[in-house]
Specification:
By secondary structure, the chain is of the alpha+beta class. 25% of the residues lie in helices and 27% in strands.
Amino acid sequence: MRTSSPAASSSFPLRPGLAVALTSLLAGCLLAGCSAAGPSAATASLPSATPTATPLSGPQLTRILLPAGSMPKGYKVGSATRNTGSQLPSDTAQPMPASQVCPAFTQTSFIRAAGISTGDWAEGDYISPDQSQEVFEEIDVFTGADAQKAMAKLWQELGKCSSFSYASNGTTASSKLTRSRVPGEGSDAIKAVIVSPVFEGGETLVAIRMGSQVITTLDSATSQDLGSPAVGYAERIAQRLRAAG
């Protein structure tokens, strides 16, 4: 999201998630068909929460993520597009300091806020031509009951971030976050919308659990839809994941 202030936008500030992605492209660091408006959440119901028969590898997960052709016109692959190769799921506790949790929800790979790291994941990152908007998608494969724990923790932490501030390129952004369940899916699907008077538009986050796998999407938009296509992106990935099983 760009800032809404003309003076500030002249220096081309980016929301933190996009800034992180572009920095990763330069430094080579690691962190963890639709229309231009994106898929509609009303076009399909979410699949049941069933795991695939065996854990999928990073490259297999990448093939399940939505390809560039599913993104809005002109979006290009960003630096946060990668996977963990042939590694198997291996979970470790990785708690996030309380002061970092709310800002993490403005960034790619926001599942880090759940405090559980897995060794089996894939990410896709797409950035608009003017670099002001971003679509991010991820699948993480957990072991045991960690996928359920991750979803529960995300819901809990989102509830603590209804109002928060964070630093963004020399600006303090005071933000509002609204969390909700995706209708019909209970605790297996979460949606959150973040807006700030400092930025144009907003962003939508979605998390869907399918057995031991958690799908997350983020859509940062300067338009009034506030990134709502994130729901449709997550639903389509869920359908592709179920088909792979």
